[in-house]
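Q: Structure tokens for this one, please.
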Amino acid sequence: MEQISKITKADLKKISGLLLALSLIFVAANLRAPITSVGPLVSYIRESTGISNSVAGLLTTVPLLAFTFMSPFAPQLARRYGVERVIFIALIFIGIGTLCRSISSSVALFGGTILIGLSIAVCNVLIPSLVKKDFSNKIGLMTGIYSVSMNLCGALASGISVPLARDAGFGWQGALSCWLVLTAVGIVFWLPRMNQSRQTATISQASTAAGEAKPWRSSLAWQVTLFMGLQSFIFYNLVAWLPEILNSRGMTNDTAGWMLSLIQFSMLPFTFVIPIIASRMKSQRVLVVITTVLYLVGIGGLLLDGNGLVPLWSVLIGVAGAGSFSLAMLFFTLRTRTSHAAAQLSGMAQSVGYLLAAIGPLVFGMIHDMTHRWTVSIGMLIAASLLIFMFGMGAARDRYVGDERS
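A: Here is the predicted structure, written as tokens:
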């Protein structure tokens, strides 16, 4: 009987751990799809609502600005109300925002987009702290799993939005609102975690009272922040402009779009593997070096004439993007001592990072307008890659935010 009891307890513990992991996976699945599903549908939205091209372009910029605004406040909300409860409410607001966007009104469209952006920002910031708290012995594995869930759903949303709207007859409203199913699944799986919310809030308040490192005053925190920001800067510039660059060289629209998709799909296996490898290292400097070299070769290849090697450059950029994104997510947990400190660092890094991501495509386009060539703009991405190396080598050292004071 005692042996059966022990087996039962062990099984229950495994089931509990599996449910915790699934809840995290389904929340992560909601953090890209509501945004990446919009870009391919912009022409349909513009025709339906009558908005201009410049206003339609804001549909992809507004969420990034919402990330910038909301990210620093997420740790404070979690400290007061508990991480689990705040994420649960954020999921509900993602669903409300998704419903608002299905209304054929430009006001409802932008209102829903803002609501989605603010809610996703909260989840973006708090998930690393949750991984540190609930999976302290499997940080690399869980970081890889939720990163794959997030990026896979984001890539799928980009690919199936137009078929849903055009071929399935859903229209752009239906293509956007169908992601409400994913949000509903996330809410259902998150409900069992609500019992932990009060305890989490109490622990966070106690740890804050005991004294936490202030990331805005930490040189290490700024190195992590700028590493995060620069990789976002490169990624969103390529998302916005790579098809245009390739079009100017004679590549068809469809093929240029597939090259962008190739970057995103190339990221998927490495966003799973790299966090597992990196979490077993005391210093991640070797991975920073490899990531930088891949960026330099991939982005530098875009300066060459001809389209024959573009698939290779796309794959190299995708692998580099996976490395930099995974390391940035992992630094939030590896470079802090507590889950609350991880949330603080995540909030700081994502606020600054997504600000760079928001202004990057604008600067990229302005440089092209002034020079009438893509060379200088691509050179800006090469410079960003070198800065990633510089700040990444500092962020990859085995130390913690706040150690500078001691």
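A few notes: The mean pLDDT is 86. The longest helix spans residues 339-371.
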